[in-house]
């Protein structure tokens, strides 16, 4: 009984201390006030939103009087909100079009997607048409493409993933038409599956694929239209399966918007960008 | 006296906290999934072509069935295995075998399920792929889940066997009953209640298991009875898509969570009911 009571009291004390701690860290950060204050509204592409939210969190922790509200709704909402001055900064996961020169864009990162197969897969390149046919279930055996006589394991991404979006848009496919054998969530899972299955094909963020290949994971990226899939070719705009991730603004920037955009241009955030599977544009 | 009172109130407070957190979770699930329930008619969940929430298709029924199939399959495999190995440990095996065996089972039950999932991806899936490609399938999920829930079942069964009426046991032994008859007529009837509730609670865990299942099941949404076909469960559905879901899609995932919660609650209520009914008989 005494043991029980002591444990109980210790738990209760721990609980209270934990609560207290949290409060004190809050008030601490409140004490270190910076000159920046106010609220920023950031709206647009759901691809950029998770990254922007993370950057906003980092920025808020440095400037306690700043509140950044990140909302999704698609690239077009990002543009229209900025135009109507509903939001301060828009998130647009493509290049600005000719009709959008009234806005200024600030390149945040690039998003490149590469087709991967197992290292021992004899196929060295696939045409866009062949990739399309594989995903539509029109080609189901590697033999037809010059490989071994095995069924193709088609790995697709779960709904809402940005790599899926880039892939579908580039190959002009509808997700409802795709015949997948496996559906997975993040890039690492796709890579793990391909690494353990010589007949699998998948598409992943180029940054993640390069990272794993450097660690000797047995996968290989396939070139597309003869262009090697690498962060280099993504950065130089050569690789076709890629897009820009932009922050956009209109007219003169407020001090706060300017400070936040400058923060996102800082090389220290490269690792955060890589964590989300994107390619940083500012070299370290 | 005052210390007793303090203990009394702090206990009440902590108990209230845990109950209210459950109520809060249920409230939150209901309010988040009400968006889709208002905008999309329930026939979509049963009769749409597939699950493509961003294109307005919300077929959730095969996902619910997926959860049920996998949990059921794993229970069918792990219950006999678990109970038989507990019997072996308690009544047949010599101590030099049963002690280390129990330790191993205890360690196994403490291994995080992700580890089992990873092991499934590199061992079970390639093995199954030799029978029928690509190996990521309902069967892979069932096998991995079996390894996850079998160790706790052994522990539960062990406990149930230990906690039986010693006097009855001694009488049976004194009467010279065979070991098998003792197990059949004394041990089992005595341990039934503990076994049943334990099994049902484990089935709740089987349904709720997420990552390991996600890694080996293939996650394709489809109606299928073939154990070599890929299948998606409610938990994987949430884990796969939640990070990037918005609006209706997000709400549809909360609905998956709500359905899961209801299934688990029903299982728990069932186990309570079984417990009280076997007690009175």
Would you write up a description of this structure?
- The complex is a heterodimer of chains A (284) and B (281).
- Chain A has ten helices and ten strands.
- Chain A has 284 residues and is of the alpha/beta class.
- Chain A has two domains: 38-110 and 245-280, D-Maltodextrin-Binding Protein, domain 2, CATH 3.40.190.10; 111-235, 3-Layer(aba) Sandwich (D-Maltodextrin-Binding Protein, domain 2), CATH 3.40.190.
- In chain A, strands 1, 2, 3, 4, 5, 6, 7, 8, 9 and 10 form a ten-stranded mixed β-sheet that branches.
- In chain A, strand 1 (38-44), helix 2 and strand 2 (66-72) form a beta-alpha-beta unit.
- The longest helix of chain A is centred in the first third of the chain and has 30 residues, at 2-31.
- The radius of gyration of chain A is 23 Å and the shape is elongated.
- The two termini of chain B are 40 Å apart.
- Chain B has a two-stranded antiparallel sheet.
- Chain B has two domains: 3-39; 66-246, MetI-like (MetI-like fold), CATH 1.10.3720.
- The model of chain B has no long low-confidence stretch (mean pLDDT 89).
- In chain B, 79% of the residues lie in helices and 1% in strands.
- Chain B is mainly α.
- Classes of the chains: A alpha/beta (284), B mainly alpha (281).
- At the A-B interface, helix 1, strand 6 and helix 6 of A face helix 1, strand 1, helix 5 and helix 10 of B.
């Amino acid at each position: 009984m005494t043991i029980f009571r002591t444990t109980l009291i210790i738990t209760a004390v721990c609980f209270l201390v934990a609560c207290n701690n949290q409060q004190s860290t809050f008030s601490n950060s409140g004490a270190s006030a910076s000159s920046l204050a106010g609220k920023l509204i950031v709206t647009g592409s759901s691809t950029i939103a998770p990254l922007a939210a993370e950057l906003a969190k980092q920025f808020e922790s440095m400037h306690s009087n700043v509140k950044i509200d990140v909302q999704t709704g698609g690239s077009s909402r990002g543009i229209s909100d900025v135009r109507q001055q509903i939001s301060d900064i828009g998130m647009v996961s493509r290049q600005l079009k000719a009709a959008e020169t009234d806005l200024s864009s600030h390149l945040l990162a690039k998003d490149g997607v590469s087709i991967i197969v197992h290292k021992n897969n004899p196929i060295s390149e696939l045409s866009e048409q062949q990739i399309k046919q594989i995903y539509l279930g029109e080609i189901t055996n590697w033999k037809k493409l010059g490989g071994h006589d095995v069924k193709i394991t088609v790995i697709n991404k779960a709904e809402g993933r940005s790599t899926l979006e880039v892939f579908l848009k580039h190959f002009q496919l509808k997700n409802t038409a795709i015949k997948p054998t496996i559906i997975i969530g993040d890039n690492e899972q796709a890579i793990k599956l391909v690494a353990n299955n010589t007949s699998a094909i998948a598409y992943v963020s180029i940054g993640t694929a390069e990272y794993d290949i450097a660690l000797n994971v047995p996968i290989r990226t396939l070139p597309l239209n003869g262009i090697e899939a690498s962060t280099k070719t993504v950065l130089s705009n050569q690789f076709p399966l890629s897009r820009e991730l932009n922050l956009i603004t209109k007219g003169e920037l407020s001090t706060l918007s300017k400070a936040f955009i400058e923060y996102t241009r800082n090389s220290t955030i490269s690792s955060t960008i890589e964590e989300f599977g994107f390619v940083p544009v500012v070299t370290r | 006296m005052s210390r007793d009172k303090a203990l009394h109130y702090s206990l009440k407070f902590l108990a209230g906290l845990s109950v209210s957190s459950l109520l809060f979770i249920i409230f939150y699930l209901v309010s988040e999934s009400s968006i889709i329930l208002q905008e999309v008619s329930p026939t979509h969940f049963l009769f749409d072509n597939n699950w493509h929430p961003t294109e307005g298709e919300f077929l959730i029924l095969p996902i619910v069935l997926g959860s049920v199939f996998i949990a059921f399959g794993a229970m069918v495999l792990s219950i006999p295995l678990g109970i038989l190995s507990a019997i072996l440990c308690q009544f047949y095996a010599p101590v030099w075998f049963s002690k280390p065996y129990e330790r191993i089972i205890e360690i196994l039950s403490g291994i995080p399920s992700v580890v089992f999932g990873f092991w499934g991806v590199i061992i079970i899936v390639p093995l199954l792929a030799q029978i029928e490609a690509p190996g990521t399938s309902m069967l892979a999920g069932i096998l991995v889940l079996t390894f996850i829930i079998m160790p706790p079942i052994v522990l539960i069964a062990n406990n149930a066997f230990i906690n039986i009426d010693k006097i009855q046991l001694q009488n049976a032994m004194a009467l010279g009953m065979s070991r098998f008859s003792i197990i059949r007529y004394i041990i089992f009837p005595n341990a039934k209640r503990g076994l049943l509730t334990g099994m049902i609670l484990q089935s709740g865990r089987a349904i709720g298991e997420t990552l390991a299942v996600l890694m080996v099941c293939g996650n394709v949404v489809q109606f299928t009875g073939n154990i070599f076909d890929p299948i998606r469960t409610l938990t994987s559905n949430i884990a796969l898509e939640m990070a990037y879901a918005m609006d209706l899609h997000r709400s549809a995932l909360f609905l998956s969570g709500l359905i899961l919660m209801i299934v688990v609650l029903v299982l728990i209520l069932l186990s309570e009911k079984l417990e009280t009914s076997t007690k009175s008989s």
